[in-house]
Give the backbone structure.
Amino acid sequence: GENVEQHPSTLSVQEGDSAVIKCTYSDSASNYFPWYKQELGKGPQLIIDIRSNVGEKKDQRIAVTLNKTAKHFSLHITETQPEDSAVYFCAPQGGAQKLVFGQGTRLTINP
Amino acid sequence: EPEVTQTPSHQVTQMGQEVILRCVPISNHLYFYWYRQILGQKVEFLVSFYNNEISEKSEIFDDQFSVERPDGSNFTLKIRSTKLEDSAMYFCASSPGGVETQYFGPGTRLLVL
């Protein structure tokens, strides 16, 4: 089955600095690559996604880069703010509809 | 902005009892999903549902689980005889198509005693 790994598992950065989280996957049929943010006690919320026909996508302070050859994609958050503190999950989707979640990265922004 | 809703937000039940978790997906979406998250762990896929039938299920989704779309708006997950290890947060999600953004509800926290 699909194997998804996310690194690091925890990340602490100073407010205003950048954060990068990397996700590797095994299913070469994956063609949709979302990142979700989960705040305490809430459901995962999509923050950005990318499809296999592009290599990078940006939305204000958030960007996702995709390397399909190497089977990894990364989340980049610039100018981090305290409200960026949360758990972030990558969840690549393969030919089936299901999302396969990574184990999550707990991001803490230090004021 | 339309969103997925779930009820109840919390459910406490005794081992062996049946529970039904309810979801109202976004109205024009065609695909519906259930996921679960055991405390402190990652989100795990349970089942996907399209055109009034299960399109995919995981090994977690055994004979104790069933899903139903009883009317045009609700989507339910039934656990027939709950076990202690069923304690988790259960998330419903929906998407317009099969390989498109999945929108998650706030979850139902199930505690089996």
Summary: Chain B touches chain A at residues 4, 31, 33, 35, 41-45, 48, 50, 55-56, 58, 91, 95, 98-107 (CB under 8 Å).
